[in-house]
Amino acid sequence: MRSLTYTELIRGNRDFRNLLAGQFISELGNWFNFIAALGLVRLVSDASPLAAGFFFVARLIPFAVMSPIAGTFVDRFSRRKVMIVTDVARTVIALAFLFVQEPGDLWIAYVATILLHTLGAFFDGAKNAAAPNLTGREGLLAGTALLFSTRFLLMAIGSALGGWASAAFGYEVAFIINAASFLISAYTVWLIPEDAVKEKADEADGSSGRSFLSDLKEGFVYSVRNHFALTILIMNMIWATGGGAINVIFERLGGIYFAETEGWNSDVAVAILWTASGFGITLGMMIAHRTSIYLDRTGRHRSFIGWTLIAHGIIFAIGGLVPTLLLFTFLTFVSRAVVGVEYAVQETMFQRSLPDQIRGRISTLDRGAEMTVFGIMAYASSELMYYITPQTLTIASGILSAFAGVSGSLGSGRKGPSSSSSRRRR
Question: Which end of the chain is less crowded, N or C, counting CB atoms within 10 A of the terminal residue's CB?
Fold first, then answer.
C-alpha cells in the first residue's frame, strides 16, 4: 500500500490541517506552561526535589488514571465535542497558576496541573482515535509522524520560548499564552465536520445499548487477549521504568547542577534540554517515512523497533558521564532522534491494527499504563535525589529504557497483525 507524503496529506486534507493547526497552537502553550510552572514551583519551594516530584506526579498520574475512562468515553460519544469542551475548560484552568505567590499557594499549582492533565487525557484520547479517520490508511504514516513530530517540535520551540519568556517577562506571561492557546485550538477543532472524526457518526451519542462499564471492560479484555496489543503494552511499561526519570534528570542536571557549575540561568538550562529533546524526536519522525518504506520491503519492523530502543537508551546513559551541559544536550538530541524514528514506525503499526470502534480505548489504555509507570518512576526519581547524583540517575534511566528494546528484539519472531506497519510510545 502506498503511503501519502507529508505534502500530499497537508495539501489535500483540510480537516487534518485544522487538527494539526490546533495541536500546534495548544502544544506551544503547553510547553510555555510546563517551563513556567516548573520554574514557579522551584522558586516558591526553594528548589525542593520533593516539590518538583509532586509537580511531575500531578502531570502524569491523572492522565494515566483517566486514560482508560477517556478512551471508553471517546469511543461512545462525539470525539469532536470532547475536544472542544476540554479545550474551553482548560482555557479557564490554565489561568489558576497566576494565583500562586508563596509556599502556601503551591496546592493551587498542583490542583490546576491535575485538572489540566485529566482533561488532557480526554482530548488526547479523542484526537488519537479521530486521526486515522481523518488521514485514511494511505495518509496514516504521514499523519502520525506529523502529529507527533509537531508535538515534539513544539516541545523544542515551546520550551525555548517558554524559558526565554519566563526569564524575560515573568511566569505570568507564559500562563496567559497557555490559556489563549487552548481557546484557539477549540476553534480549529470546531471547523472539522462531525462525520469526519468517526466512521459511524450515528453511534457517537453513546446510545449503542451497551453500558459504559461493559465498553470499558471490553478494552481491557482486548488488550490482554490480543498478543500484538499486549506486547506493545508491556514494552511501553518497561520503557517507562527508565523514561519516567527524564523530568527529574532535566530539572536537576540542567536547572540545578549545570546552572550552578557553569553559570546557566536555571529556566534556560532546563529549556535547552527540552528543546534538544523536541528537535531530536522531530528529526527522527521526519525521516520515518523513508525508513518505513525500507521496513515494508524487508518486514523487519520488530527487530528495528527493538534495536533502536536499545541504541537510544545506551546513548542517553552515556550522557550521565559527560562534564558539560552542551555535551549532555547533544547526546540527548541524538538519543531522541533515534527513538523518534522508532516512535513513528511503531505508532503507525499500532493504529492500523485497531478497529475504529475500539481504537480510543486501546490507545488510551496503552498510554495510561505507560504513564502510570512513568509517573511512579518520576516520583521515585525525585526521592532518589536525596541519595544519588543526577548523573547516576541518568545512567540508570538509559539502561532501563534500553531493556524495552531487549524485550522487543526477543519478540521479533512473533508476527504482528501486519508486516507493513508499526507500533507505539512516549
Answer: N
Conformational region of residue 198, where left means phi above 0, alpha means psi within -120 to 50, and beta covers everything else: beta
Cβ 347 vs Cβ 424: under 8 Å: yes
Please give the helix or strand (H or E) that residue 167 lies within, else none. Answer: helix 106-169
- Residue 292, amino acid: S
Residue found by looking up cell 523544542 in the block: 156
- In a domain, residue 157? The reply is yes
Which residues have C-beta within 8 Å of that of residue 244, sequence separation ≥ 6? Answer: 60, 373, 374, 375, 376, 377, 378, 380, 381
Indicate if the alpha-carbon torsion angle 163, 164, 168, 171 is positive or negative.
negative
pLDDT tens digit sequence for 81-128:
999 999 999 999 999 999 998 888 899 999 999 999 899 888 888 888
For residue 97, what pLDDT is reported? 92
337: which 3 cell numbers? 532522534
Q: Which three cell numbers stand for residue 63?
A: 492522565
- Over the stretch 162-174, which tens digit does the pLDDT of each residue have? 777 777 777 888 8
SS3 category, 205? strand
* Residue 197 within any structural domain of the chain: yes
What value does the mean pLDDT of the chain take?
Answer: 81
CA distance 421 to 398: 27
The amino acid that residue 355 corresponds to is: P
Residue 415 within a domain: no
Classify residue 283 as exposed, middle or buried by CB count within 10 Å of its CB (0-12, 13-18, 19+): buried
Domain that holds residue 18: 6-410
Number of domains the chain is built from: 1
Phi, psi of 77, rounded to the nearest 5 degrees: -120, 180
> What distances in angstroms separate CA 256 from CA 36, 48, 120, one per listed residue?
16, 11, 29
72 in a structural domain:
yes
169 contacts: CB under 8 Å, gap ≥ 6: none
How far is Cα 284 from Cα 206, in angstroms, rounded to an integer? 39
Q: Which residues neighbour 296 within 8 Å (Cβ) at sequence distance 6 or greater?
A: 419, 420
Read off the pTM. 0.66
- How large is the angle between the packed helices 79-93 and 49-76, nearest 10 degrees? 150
CA dist list (Å): 208 to 21, 205, 213, 275: 32, 8, 13, 45
CATH of the domain at 352: 1.20.1250.20
Who's near 376: CB < 8 A, 6+ residues apart?
Answer: 61, 244
